[in-house]
Amino acid sequence: MKKTTNTLFTFGAIALAAAALLSACVKSNPDSPGFEFMPDMYRSPGPETNGMYINTVTGDSLSNRLPAAGSIPRGFTVFPYANTAEGDSLAKAFWTYKSLGMQRSEANEKAGEELYNRYCMVCHGKKGDGNGPIVVSEKYPNMPPSYIARMKENNLSEGHIYHVVTYGKGVMGSHASQLNPQERMQVAQYVQLLGREGKSVEEYNNSPAPAADSTKAAPVAGAAKATPSK
Amino acid sequence: MNSSRQHARRTGIALAFSLILSLFFSASVHAQDGKALFKANCSSCHAASEKKGTGPGLKGVLDRIPGGDWKYKWVKNSAALTASGDAYAAKIKAEYNNAAMTAFPQLTNEQIDLILNYAHEGEKTPAPVTATDGGAGTKTEEKASGNTSFMVIIILVLLICLIAILRYTKINLRNAVNEKEGQPQEESMPFLDAVRHWMMNNKRKVALIGLFIFGVLIVKGWYGLQGVGIYATEVKKDKWVGYKPSQPINFSHKIHAGQNGIDCKYCHSTVEKSKNASIPSVNICMNCHKAIGETANPGSKEEIAKIYAAAGYDPNTQTYDRTKEMPVKWNKVHVLPDHVFFSHQQHVKVGKVECETCHGNVKEMTVAEQQRPLTMGWCIDCHRKTNVAMEGNGYYTQLHEKMKEKYKGQKSFTVAQMGGIECARCHY
Question: Which of B106, B121, B136 is the last residue of a domain?
Fold first, then answer.
């Protein structure tokens, strides 16, 4: 009887020790991608997008590379105006839908809406009044201008919008890496629609001219909107 | 006559009332609305703190600028003021890359005063939040797990020491007793011999212990073998998931995609145009972080400084130095082997599959991790079960008609039905 108890006790003690030791050993390092039993082509010998490999020509390990200076992708329309105030005013005057062989259309507006909600809405707001979610939550310190006010002031041409999307303006960064030329134009079209508060061009132009003091009131109206209202 | 007088009186009352109301209103405007005016008109370029934006930070501005009408002239038309040869105006313009400030002719002097008074006092910065969403949590976890294995080793060493000491004491005691009783001293055996001796005398125990250790090894080994397979470090419900490497920058999807509601595709912008969803380059980070150098989350300043370093950006001068650019070495979390073809474009743009289907609840992840097994069985399973979004989808107009003809009476079709589990679909 005593012998059995003794045996059980020893048995238990050693079992505990073994379990603890083993579990400590098996716990894996989160930075290790795991154990590759047989080569299963997880580590690509060829260059992969965003991957690392040893480049035998340059000796570094980058797979993403800049194209040779001056290269232009197939079907790409070069934007000829510089990132300056003059470039902006030139784009305003001469860069239109036609420059890209496009025109104002409902399909473009719809595509623009999707792109706008993806790339612009976070700051510029669903209605284009500058009250995007991260501006309202005050996580982003700068409030973007309202398209509605800008449309009233200076007609918000597609060339100007295109220039801003391409190069950025003020604290806004360039979105050229995210939007291709056609998409930029689609966004521009939707931004203009927001600036017209959803009215079509004819409707907007035919609507009664704003009263003389309305421009003065504009910033105050903007101010009233600026207070976060959830 | 009578009615007209009544009318006049009514109008009078209404007028008085509206006058009082407007007085009230204007008073409230005075009280709150430097801030709102500032936000609406100035905050795209200026901060109400010392932080430089496109223009200078405006905290303490009234102490810096010339007195008198200067501020009104500057705000209403800064270009004219600079052109008139004003020294301070010229200095400011030169300091900020010769960018002219937008003219605000529509603001009244009163409004300008409100704005400047607000900006002069500066925004009260909220106290930093102590609860964190940063990467801190996982680090402590790792540390803790490291500590436990260390503790186990220490305890084992202590136990072995204890056994040695007890054995030594036992022999000494027995020798003392032997000496007293006048019996010969017991020879002290070498440790290994002693163990062997004990094992010979306790074959039953040895067999039991051996059996147990064998069992543990079998079980642990089995689970260990299940862990074979790259990019899978944990077995959860018989699936290999959980690769969660630390990253060079403590980027939190929870903050960006979850709390701030930024679309996944804002940063992973090639997902609809390419095979790869792409790890965003730092210029996309800089779209926002040019203006956000620090947040309420502890450690944010250091992390954002890493973006600046990678972009070669100097936040003080607000200029980029292309020679200092340095790509960030992100650790790729979701990896498929080379022998399988997978296209994001095909799944996201054409098939309209949500990101979450394969990447899990990224919006809740502080550190990105693999939540789906990404094994062939898992792919096939989804291809068998999922109905393709064919209705009203321009990519499928023709195919949908053909499928309806082939499978009479059926309207929606799985990927498998259109050949989505053929070997050569993915392996070629």
Answer: B121
CATH number at residue B35: 1.10.760.10
Is B410 within the bounds of a domain?
A: yes
| Domain contains B9 | no
In A56-115, the residues whose Cβ lies within 8 Å of chain B are 62, 64, 85
Domain count along chain B: 3
* Residues 112-151, chain A, touching B (beta carbon < 8 A): 117-119, 122-123, 130, 133-134, 137, 139-146
Q: Tell me the per-residue pLDDT of B48-77, one tens digit each, with 9 for 90 and over.
A: 777 777 778 787 788 778 877 787 878 887
SS3 A64: coil
Nearest CA distance, B99 vs chain A (angstrom): 9
Kindly report each contact of residues B152-161 with a partner whose C-beta sits within 8 Å and lies 24 or more positions away, as own/partner.
Answer: B152/A20, B152/A21, B152/A24, B153/A24, B156/A17, B156/A21, B159/A17
Q: B169 lies in which domain range?
A: 149-232
CB pairs < 8 Å spanning A and B: 210
Amino acid letter for position A177: S
Residue B44: list chain A partners with CB under 8 A. Answer: 130, 142-145, 170-171
Q: Is residue B8 part of a domain?
A: no
List, for residues B97-155, the tens digit of each pLDDT value. 777 777 777 778 888 888 888 878 776 654 444 444 444 434 444 444 456 678 888 99
In a domain, B56, yes or no: yes
Residue B235 main-chain phi, psi, to 5 deg: -105, 110
Q: Are residues B187 and B265 in the same domain?
A: no
Phi, psi of B121 (to 5 degrees): -70, -30
ipTM: 0.78
Same domain, B259 and B227: no
* Cβ contacts of B62 within 8 Å, gap of 6 or more: B116, B117, B120
Please state the three-class secondary structure of B227-268 as a single string.
Answer: CECCCCCEEECCEEECCCCCCCCCCCHHHHHHHCCCCHHHHC
Tell whether B272 and B421 lie within a shared domain: yes
Task: Please give the DSSP secondary-structure letter assigned to residue B346.
Answer: I
Query: Which pair of tokens denotes residue B330?
Result: 């992100």
